[in-house]
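User: I've been trying to design a sequence by hand for this structure and keep getting stuck. Would you show me what you'd pick, starting by listing the structure so we're on the same page?

Assistant: Good idea, let's start from the same input. This is the structure you sent:
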């Protein structure tokens, strides 16, 4: 158990309990690494009064965690019952304050948008905002790449071929460019895949009106943390807010690259059970699946100028090979199931015996605490002896509780191998669920 740890979620709304540090803290709580949580006031835990009350009244007591809010003088150890009406009202006030604050922030952001200020923390590719935080300034290096992309599009070159050209010339991608020039703050996306220009990156640049000197805001809204595209007539567009990289005429001509492109719709279900599992060992991206002429997987980036291997495999060959390997493992696990059950029963009996012994020990330790207190009240021992006895007994109780928790965790882990594979015993063919549950990655050379 850690003696002390600190968690904070700067920049995240208190209305949201999916905050990174809060989740990390709760994982430590579940792992029994935390016995007490101290906050300044209830609003530091969260500003959704229903969910915050659930944590204070139900979840923390169930997990055996003491909760202290300093400003409210609340301590779950000494509290007689659930939150009183005054503390519940404070939680409601924090919730209403958060809602009101959120409206004010949105209103202030919209006013800045209409004014033409740049309010995003980092500049888009082609610009920088290091000198003036609220204004985009043309970046001499990346802006030249943006100009070239628009020139090629105006001359009729497709987005895919523009991407291939940039890869062949060794031009670094926007994400890689931001990574190389960043200092302390991270304004790039960490990626496992190789840095590669793709048609999608080129299209995003060609469709961004901000390169014409306009400021465009409000394209998306968030519903349950999912981005939803707003109709263009509702966007906030402010012209002439910064220096343009391309003219309006060039921008409109470049849009012709999209007019002949048919709309892409994603199927409700993958076309193959293996979709997303097979990857190229060079660029680390999932292999594309072709079903129009022959059903096969191949590396879509092979011709994108990154020197990817010509990785390709027929769907039937891939399925047969993978299913053979899985079936062999399933047979081995199934063979070991009967001795495993016998071993499990013996282990469970041993665990039950160990649990009973520890529980008996815990009862005796807690009884000894009461006995020591009675002796102190009767004047048989002094206060110093009582405190030493309490500290020693508390340490022994904590040790016994940890031993009890370890027995439960050990028993849960021992079930994993058989339980993970058991649903697929006797399967005659490879299924999507089998691939998702039993396969991490397949590298196709």
């Amino acid at each position: 158990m850690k003696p002390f740890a600190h968690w904070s979620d700067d920049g995240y709304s208190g209305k949201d309990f999916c905050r990174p540090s809060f989740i990390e803290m709760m994982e430590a709580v579940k792992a029994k690494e935390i016995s007490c949580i101290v906050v300044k006031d209830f609003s530091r835990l969260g500003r959704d009064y229903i969910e915050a009350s659930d944590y204070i009244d139900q979840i923390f007591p169930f997990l055996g965690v003491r909760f202290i809010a300093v400003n409210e003088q609340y301590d779950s150890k000494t509290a007689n019952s659930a939150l009183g009406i005054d503390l519940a009202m404070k939680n409601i006030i924090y919730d209403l304050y958060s809602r009101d604050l959120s409206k004010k922030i949105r209103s202030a952001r919209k006013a800045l948008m209409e004014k033409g200020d740049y309010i995003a923390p980092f500049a888009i590719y082609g610009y920088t905002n290091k000198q003036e935080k609220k204004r985009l300034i043309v970046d001499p290096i990346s802006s030249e790449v943006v100009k070239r992309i628009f020139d090629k599009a105006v001359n009729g070159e497709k987005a895919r071929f523009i991407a291939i050209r940039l890869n062949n010339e060794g031009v670094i991608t926007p994400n890689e460019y931001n990574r190389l020039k960043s200092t302390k703050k991270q304004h790039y996306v960490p990626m496992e895949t190789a840095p590669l220009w793709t048609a999608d990156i080129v299209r995003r640049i060609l469709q961004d009106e901000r390169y014409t000197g306009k400021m465009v805001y409000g394209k998306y809204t968030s519903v349950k943390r999912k981005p939803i595209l707003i109709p263009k007539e509702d966007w906030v567009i402010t012209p002439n807010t910064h220096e343009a990289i391309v003219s309006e005429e060039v921008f409109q001509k470049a849009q012709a690259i999209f007019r002949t492109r048919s709309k892409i719709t994603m199927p409700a279900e993958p076309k193959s059970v293996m979709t997303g599992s097979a990857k190229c060992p060079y660029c680390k991206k999932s292999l594309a699946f072709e079903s129009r002429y022959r059903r096969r997987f191949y590396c879509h980036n092979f011709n994108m100028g990154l020197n990817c291997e010509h990785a390709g495999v027929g769907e039937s060959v891939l399925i047969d090979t993978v299913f053979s390997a899985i079936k062999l493992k399933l047979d081995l696990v199934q063979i070991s199931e009967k001795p495993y059950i016998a071993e499990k029963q013996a282990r469970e009996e041993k665990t039950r015996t160990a649990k009973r012994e520890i529980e008996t020990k815990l009862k005796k330790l807690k009884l000894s605490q009461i006995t020591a207190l009675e002796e102190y009240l009767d004047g048989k021992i002094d206060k110093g002896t009582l405190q030493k006895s309490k500290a020693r007994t508390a340490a022994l109780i904590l040790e016994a509780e940890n031993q009890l928790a370890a027995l439960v965790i050990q028993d849960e882990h021992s079930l994993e191998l058989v339980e993970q594979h058991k649903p697929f015993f006797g399967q005659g063919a490879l299924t999507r669920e089998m691939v998702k549950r039993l396969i991490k990655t397949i590298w196709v050379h």
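That's my pick for every position. To get oriented when you compare it with your attempt: DSSP finds 15 helices and 14 strands in the chain. The radius of gyration is 31 Å.
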